[in-house]
Amino acid sequence: MTIEKLHQCFLAHPKVCTDTRKIEGDCLFFALKGDNFNGNRYAAEALRKGASFAVVDEDDYAISDRYIVVDDVLEALQQLATFHRDYSTARVIALTGSNGKTTTKELIRAVLSRKYRVIATLGNLNNHIGVPLTLLSIAEDTEIAIIEMGANHRKEIETLCKVARPDFGYITNFGKAHLEGFGGVKGVIKGKSELYDYLMASGKSIFMNADDPIQFKKLNGYINKFGFSMDKKDFFRMSFLGADPFVKIEVEGQAVTSQLIGSYNFTNCAAAILIGKFFNVPWEDIKNAIASYVPQNNRSQILNKNSHRIILDAYNANPTSMVAALETFKKMEGTPKIAFLGDMFELGETAGIEHQAIVDFAASMQFQDVFLIGENFARTDSHLRSFTAFEQLSEYLMKNPVPKNSNLLIKGSRGMALERILEIL
């Protein structure tokens, strides 16, 4: 079946499912393959559960006219997404970076939704499957689609750009994330910059942090760029008024206070404000959107539980975000301060060095206590409390409860699932 005909089928059944556990009635089921599964085997089940058609790439499974046979299901999904993106009149904003992608995406969504009909990547569905699924959620009345793009190796962003064909783009930053796949910080810069490379090659509009020396150098001489800055006169000026603990920004003589902690969230807010201004969202709407956005999903959340004030930032972690979180925690008022730090993943050969650097930095903070959790942290040289496995930490805390009225930082990679500490508290 051609992509044009598949798109006509999609328009008649505009829901896509890739998991038989989440089948919605009247959807198209795409039988994707993975290292340990073959979606073709579940196509019949998808149809029994209510899917209208199943897209497969093995003829043996196509036993009725409710099966659509393609050469490769993943490629068909991506091609369908690109075709639908071109069919739609929505403008596409792509977003990538080492840290802050999801928070920035949600802030941009909050701002633009004040004036436009907007869709955005759900959660962190930002890979070669998630990006097509997001594009296919563009409805007839969608005016702007915000597409988050994640990557852990070179050429991945380039591929996602070919699928999404963005009209605009923004890179949050270049940090020490996925060093194993990118081959070091220089690889991270090259990999994330693939978004700007794509946009520049096609003359598209680029949003930028003009105070980031990497972005400033990369885009020097490119005309179709729009940036924010704290001191450069040729860009939209914003001032960082502080974070005690919530980020406060001054724009054109007016202040806006967010519900986001940490100075690192200044640029996330600034990007959303810049993009709101670019799309002519009224200032009061921009201000209210920034002020009312509340972080969720274990991302820099401030919680109060059993007399404790908790910063829960357990969605992900890398050396750059770990240092930023510790610095923010240090500046916060109140004592005692206790930090729970979980392993950082995907650091490759640099894992030992980077974990030791975090241990040394955390020790210099002079908190009342620091708990290190995970095999990487357990191998570091430190006087701090260390636990190879979460269960060991749990057992320790059951016998040695955290002092009442403590200020706690919980930070670690997603695989560590440190939000479980809340149950112990």
TrEMBL record:
Pfam families per UniProt: Mur_ligase, Mur_ligase_C, Mur_ligase_M
Give residues annotated as binding ATP.
G97, S98, N99, G100, K101, T102, T103
Name the principal localization, coarsely classed.
cytoplasm
- Keyword Ribosomal protein in record: no
Keywords of the record, alphabetical order, are:
ATP-binding, Cell cycle, Cell division, Cell shape, Cell wall biogenesis/degradation, Cytoplasm, Ligase, Nucleotide-binding, Peptidoglycan synthesis
Q: Does the keyword Cell cycle apply?
A: yes
Mur ligase N-terminal catalytic domain boundaries: 16-83
The record ties this protein, via Gene3D superfamilies, to:
Mur ligase, C-terminal domain, Mur-like, catalytic domain, MurE/MurF, N-terminal domain
Q: Pathway listed for it? A: Cell wall biogenesis; peptidoglycan biosynthesis
Question: Domain Mur ligase central: where?
Answer: 96-275
Record field: catalytic activity:
D-alanyl-D-alanine + UDP-N-acetyl-alpha-D-muramoyl-L-alanyl-gamma-D-glutamyl-meso-2,6-diaminopimelate + ATP = UDP-N-acetyl-alpha-D-muramoyl-L-alanyl-gamma-D-glutamyl-meso-2,6-diaminopimeloyl-D-alanyl-D-alanine + ADP + phosphate + H(+)
Where in this chain does the record put each Mur ligase C-terminal domain?
A: 299-380
Family to which the UniProt record says this protein belongs: Belongs to the MurCDEF family. MurF subfamily.
| Entry function | Involved in cell wall formation. Catalyzes the final step in the synthesis of UDP-N-acetylmuramoyl-pentapeptide, the precursor of murein.
Protein's recorded name: UDP-N-acetylmuramoyl-tripeptide--D-alanyl-D-alanine ligase
The organism named in the record is Pricia mediterranea
